[in-house]
Structure formats: structure tokens, C-alpha cells
Design a protein that fits this description.
36% strand, 39% helix, alpha+beta, 9 strands
Length: 181
């Protein structure tokens, strides 16, 4: 049995991507106009291709969290935050899950983050969405910042329904414990 959960509102990431996209488009247009006037045609084409390719790659990286996913199934929990971060947690490693309200002194921040001291991985698509904390008995490996490996003992994920998401995780954990007995 597998259940996919909504990661919450996309509004934060859409606005985060929109401004750099507009600036990148203006940069590309500016580079195109300048290189066409100052360089020979072949050199201008090469410069324009490099600037355009870099812009497309940057926009892809910025927008990647928009198509992330959260999936709970009998084998565990999978959270993908585009290219920004991800973690796969075996069901045996999960102690439990509960709705989470970040402390006022350390509010949730948009994006993927890892606190090395508490070993908490946060994958936040929207700071206005509900969040869930998943406590792990056995540290699980994840990644942030494209390729940086981390070992997390807890995970904070935003979702559109914190109670339903936490209940789903806890039900899978109980089912795995019953199968083990």
C-alpha cells in the first residue's frame, strides 16, 4: 500500500523562481543585443548559447522543488525535493511522526536545510503549509544542495495535511511492527 501526499502550497517557490527568471531573461536579452553589436556572428552565437544554456540550467535548478514528492509505503518514506534535497527512510528506522510547529526563535525556512547539531533535515516547500516531524531511531542518509550527503535523525516536511500525513506514517510503522512480531 502506497500513499502520495501533497507537499503543500507551491506559492513560495513560484515567487522564488519568478524574480530570478525575469532577471535571467533580461540578462539573456541584454547579452544577445550586446554580443550581436560587438562580436563577429560566430563568436556572438557562441556567447549567446553559453548564456542561454546557463540560464536554462539555473532556472531548472530553481524550479526543481516544484515537482518534488512525498510517498509513504510499506517499505518506508520517500521525500524528494527536486534536485535540492531528498531522503529515503526505511520503515524500520521510523519511531513516529507528529504535526510540527517550529519554535519562534528558529522558524522554518523555505528550501532544504540540515542542522548538523540536531541532525534534523528540513524540506520546506512553503512556510505557510503545515509541517510534520518524523523521528528516526536509526539515522538515515539523505542529501541537500544537490550532492551533499547528510545523516538525519529527524525530518521536517511541509504538507497540505499534517495530521493525515502523520497518521499515515504511524499506521505504516505499526503495520511493520506487527509483521515483525
Amino acid at each position: 500500500m502506497s500513499a502520495k501526499h501533497n507537499r503543500g502550497s507551491r506559492r513560495g517557490w513560484i515567487w522564488l523562481v519568478f524574480l530570478p527568471f525575469v532577471l535571467a531573461a533580461l540578462e539573456t536579452i541584454g547579452a544577445l543585443l550586446i554580443t550581436d553589436r560587438l562580436l563577429p556572428p560566430m563568436a556572438a552565437f557562441i556567447v549567446e548559447a553559453i548564456v542561454f544554456s546557463g540560464t536554462v540550467v539555473a532556472m531548472f535548478l530553481f524550479a526543481a522543488p516544484l515537482w518534488g514528492k512525498v510517498e509513504v509505503h510499506g517499505e518506508g518514506l520517500l521525500v524528494r525535493f527536486g534536485l535540492v534535497g531528498s531522503i529515503r527512510v526505511p520503515i524500520e528506522s521510523i519511531l513516529g511522526a507528529a504535526p510540527y510547529m517550529a519554535p519562534a526563535m528558529t522558524p522554518l525556512q523555505l528550501g532544504a536545510g540540515f542542522d548538523g547539531e540536531s541532525r534534523q533535515l528540513s524540506l520546506v516547500r512553503s512556510t505557510t503549509s503545515e509541517s510534520v516531524i518524523v523521528r528516526l531511531g536509526i539515522p538515515s542518509s539523505g542529501r541537500v544542495q544537490l550532492f551533499k550527503p547528510v545523516m538525519a535523525t529527524s525530518l521536517v516536511v511541509t504538507t497540505s495535511g499534517a495530521i493525515a500525513f502523520a497518521d499515515d506514517i504511524n499506521a505504516h510503522v505499526r503495520a511493520a511492527e506487527e509483521r515483525a512480531v
